[in-house]
Design a protein that fits this description.
By secondary structure, the protein is mainly alpha-helical. About 70% of the residues lie in helices and about 0% in strands. Helix 6 runs parallel beside helix 8 and helix 7 runs antiparallel to helix 8.
Length: about 150
């Protein structure tokens, strides 16, 4: 019983932190809230959705932290594949790198990202870390045409 309450309290805190990522007008609060979620696995579904929305934040640090946090969710971030694919167009290569990693961690549930990841993997003008992460993501997603 005590363990259940502790888990519920942690999940409530995680959701509140995720809400601060979007709700605060203070960029330092958004950054700190997003950063604190980067290494947390098993976030509540509502928090995952908020992190998906944070991928379009005006601040690149918030976007990168949101992508890192979604990476840690693995297949549970599958609901955010569309937003992750959109974030592959981010101007910042660090954000694109983390987004490609997140899509790879989603695994087969990210099959809709294959075309976008293939474009990044094959683009000679893309930074190497994004190309490599895109290739790894394609391997994890699998399916027809995946790199071997």
């Amino acid at each position: 019983m005590a363990r259940r309450r502790a888990d519920l309290a942690r999940r409530t805190t995680d959701l509140e932190l995720a809400r601060q990522v979007l709700a605060s007008t203070d960029v330092t609060v958004r950054r700190a809230a997003a950063k604190s979620l980067e290494t947390r696995a098993d976030l509540p579904e509502n928090a995952v959705r908020v992190l998906g929305l944070a991928l379009s934040d005006a601040d690149r640090w918030v976007r990168e932290s949101a992508a890192k946090a979604l990476r840690e969710q693995g297949p549970a971030a599958g609901s955010e594949v569309g937003r992750l694919v959109d974030a592959l167009k981010d101007e910042d290569p660090y954000v694109r790198w983390r987004v490609a990693e997140a899509l790879g961690r989603v695994g087969p549930g990210a099959v809709a990202a294959r075309d976008a990841l293939t474009r990044h993997a094959d683009d000679p003008d893309e930074v190497e870390v994004v190309r490599a992460a895109s290739l790894r993501a394609l391997e994890r997603i699998g399916g027809a045409g995946a790199p071997k």
